[in-house]
Write a structure and sequence with these properties.
about 300 residues, 16 helices
Amino acid sequence: VARFHEQIASDLPQVDLLCRFVERYRGKMLRPSLAVLAASAVRPGAVDVADPVITVGAVIEMIHIATLVHDDVLDDADTRRGGPTINRMHGEEAAVIFGDYLISQSFHLCSGLNDQAIALRVGEVTSTVCAGEMLQLSNRGNADLDEATYFSIIDRKTAALIALACELGARVAGASEADQHRLGSYGRRLGMAFQIQDDLLDITGAEEVVGKPLGKDVEKGKITLPLIHFLRHGPAQERQAMRERIRVEQPLNGSRPALHSRLERAGSIAYARAAAVRLVAEAKAELASFGPSGAKDTLLALADAVIARDH
């Protein structure tokens, strides 16, 4: 956290105001935690987390928060983690530019690492995240979106950055390429399960617990896994009504519980949950070759927690 704020602090009061405001965007700190845990799993008890593991974690968290700031603009979101968004408090223009500022600061911090291969990977994956967002945007309102494209979207826009945290945490700890790959693969599957759970919470969650407006995926024409299943297997009349709603991006206006009920009856909620459970099992299997350690135990527990969470 300290390195994050040291890097983004500005001598311009207008910029520093946003730097302090963005503190409320920090949540579970999943990505920095994964970087440290991956390093510790590679070299149990021998990792100095002061540097450069913390730098890697701070870099990835900056990019992640930049995507949240930009997402709030794209979604017209008023709240994030129970508080007002930057776009609500300071306007969309300021939010877009501040998101760009966070990304540029992340590259600046990353450039100070001795291993420039890390900077190359950060740049590559940041581009992947942006491509995933553009792929999702291009499919808004597309009721014919298939599962392969959905998984391609979440792999890029969510899982890639989580995988990077695990991969680079292992790299700075001196892991072999094989172990970097295994931990990156763990993170990739964990990230996809994380996004599926997010998509489920948008339908099934409680706003006061999740801390942001829910039902936005349907309202914005975003097709998620439970909706894909419902549009293939739900009752014909309800499927058609859903297709029309998605195309015109209609507000739910309090009808989210009814949507939840329809998807539950069609087995769409259970289908998406099963996919997340399967991905978590695959993620945990990637850790089998690592020796026993507290870090490994925590990584295994984190995988289970991803699909058990309610916010």
